[in-house]
Inverse folding.
């Protein structure tokens, strides 16, 4: 029953009741999203690894607080967002790190995840792709934490603003305003490094 | 109908993820055609939105992924062992059967909890009768009144405990049969205390030697403190001892919630029956409930640990 068609919510309820298999399926399903969310924003693969461990530990400890009536992914990203925010606050935000692009380099040698498009055949094209991804990650790290989060949740995870709002402790309307500011800032960041389309 | 620039901001965001509706789309294109600033913002936002496509998920390195999964698996195995040792709420074997068992419960109430709620209710009824037993000797009221009121309080606590059990259910059932019993009990309590205003719940305690001594020592709040303690002790103990997973995770918080519910349920009764209903009286009552709950949780944990040691 733990196949592709079993919803996150049913798996999560089974995980609450103690099923290890349900946890493993959930973990496999969301590993890439959680790791990508963290790794892009901290840059350093070692820190990303630590945060990733901590994220699933927090999920485990908090699993009784998940309400089966509510969708799973906003709850998951609520935990991951708070974890990242705690980390960035504690570090006093030094967005640019010397090995900031190590995550991309390290991950580009690994297998392609479900959310990631198949690697383009042309190596030149692949290099261009990697460069634009690295530029985007740098821009996200330079942005305020919540602005980058709202964009990742809306664009990459496809969550509606009704669900993003509570994650950030804001109303849906305020989350949309945040996304508006974030998109403008992102575009400015990308343009400043010569990666935006110049029009 | 067009919109202003503020409204346009919101619609521009909606347009990107496709959640904009037909009316919004019309209002936006009307506004943008006449507002260069928003037209420019629309282009810039589309660029940034497209650029965000490169932020796709990244699969973690295999070692990272396996370490996280192994850690949670270990914790789950420890919990299974603990539960086996404590023999509370037998946990499902770890296979597809758990998923199969849980899936329908998301949609329908879990009736298997009803016997547990009734058993706890009987237990509380016995405890309450013991608590109020002194009434029969200590009051000048006609016996029928006393019995009526004792029954009322029993109903009150039965309702509260039913609530505790329904609220600590794992599968998100917050208003099952047990909770409805609680609502009925509250209604009975309010009706009964209104019909029988001569009853004073603290009377027998106040007339006892210990009660008199305590009241002399710390004032009229003394008896409230003691009753609060008794009210908190029982739910705290039972909730921590028999509670579901929610309580296993946060025993103190959940027992305090349970005790608060008991407090709120009993509030109209105490109000109706305490002539000088002062804030000091309430404060000492609350303090008693908090202390009683913590003692109850502590006691329940001692019992659980003891059982675990015996089982090991
Ligand atoms: Zn405008």
């Amino acid at each position: 029953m733990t196949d592709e068609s079993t919803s996150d919510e049913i798996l999560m309820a089974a995980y609450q009741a103690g099923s290890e298999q349900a946890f493993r399926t959930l973990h496999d399903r969301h590993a890439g999203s959680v790791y990508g969310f963290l790794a892009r924003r901290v840059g350093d693969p070692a820190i990303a690894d630590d945060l990733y461990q901590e994220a699933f530990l927090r999920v485990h400890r908090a699993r009784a607080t998940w309400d089966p009536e509510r969708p799973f992914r906003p709850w998951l990203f609520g935990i991951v967002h708070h974890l990242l925010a705690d980390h960035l606050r504690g570090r006093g935000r030094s967005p640019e790190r010397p090995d900031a692009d190590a995550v991309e380099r390290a991950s580009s040698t690994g297998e392609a995840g479900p959310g990631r498009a198949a690697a383009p055949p042309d190596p030149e094209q692949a290099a261009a792709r990697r460069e634009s991804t690295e530029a985007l990650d740098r821009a996200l790290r330079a942005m305020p934490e919540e602005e980058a989060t709202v964009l990742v949740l809306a664009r990459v995870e496809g969550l509606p603003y009704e669900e993003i709002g509570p994650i950030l402790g804001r109303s849906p309307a305020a989350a949309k305003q945040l996304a508006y500011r974030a998109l403008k800032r992102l575009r400015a960041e990308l343009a400043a490094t010569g990666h935006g389309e110049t029009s | 109908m067009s919109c202003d620039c503020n409204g346009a901001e919101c619609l521009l965001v909606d347009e990107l993820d496709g959640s904009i509706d037909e009316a919004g789309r019309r209002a936006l294109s009307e506004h943008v055609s006449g507002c260069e600033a928003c037209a420019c913002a629309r282009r810039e936002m589309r660029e940034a939105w497209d650029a965000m496509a490169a932020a796709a998920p990244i699969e973690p390195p295999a070692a990272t992924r396996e370490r996280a999964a192994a850690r949670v698996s270990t914790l789950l195995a420890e919990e299974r062992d603990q539960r086996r040792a404590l023999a509370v709420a037998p946990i499902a074997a770890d296979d597809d059967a758990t998923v199969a068992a849980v899936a329908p419960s998301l949609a329908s109430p879990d009736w298997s909890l009803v016997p547990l709620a009734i058993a706890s209710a009987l237990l509380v009824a016995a405890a309450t009768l013991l608590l109020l037993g002194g009434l029969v000797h200590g009051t000048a009221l006609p016996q029928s009144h006393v019995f009526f009121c004792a029954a009322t309080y029993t109903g009150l606590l039965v309702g509260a405990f039913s609530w505790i059990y329904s609220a600590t259910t794992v599968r998100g059932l917050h208003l099952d049969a047990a909770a409805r019993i609680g609502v009925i009990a509250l209604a009975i309590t309010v009706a009964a205390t209104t019909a029988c205003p001569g009853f004073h719940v603290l009377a027998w305690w106040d007339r006892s030697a210990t009660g008199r001594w305590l009241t002399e020592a710390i004032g009229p709040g003394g008896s409230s403190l003691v009753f609060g303690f008794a009210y908190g002790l029982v739910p705290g103990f039972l909730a921590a001892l028999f509670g579901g997973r929610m309580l296993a995770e946060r025993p103190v918080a959940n027992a305090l919630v349970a005790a608060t519910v008991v407090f709120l349920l009993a509030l109209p009764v105490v109000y109706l029956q305490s002539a000088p209903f002062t804030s000091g009286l309430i404060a000492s009552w609350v303090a008693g409930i908090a202390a009683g709950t913590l003692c109850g949780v502590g006691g329940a944990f001692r019992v659980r640990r003891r059982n675990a040691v015996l089982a090991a």
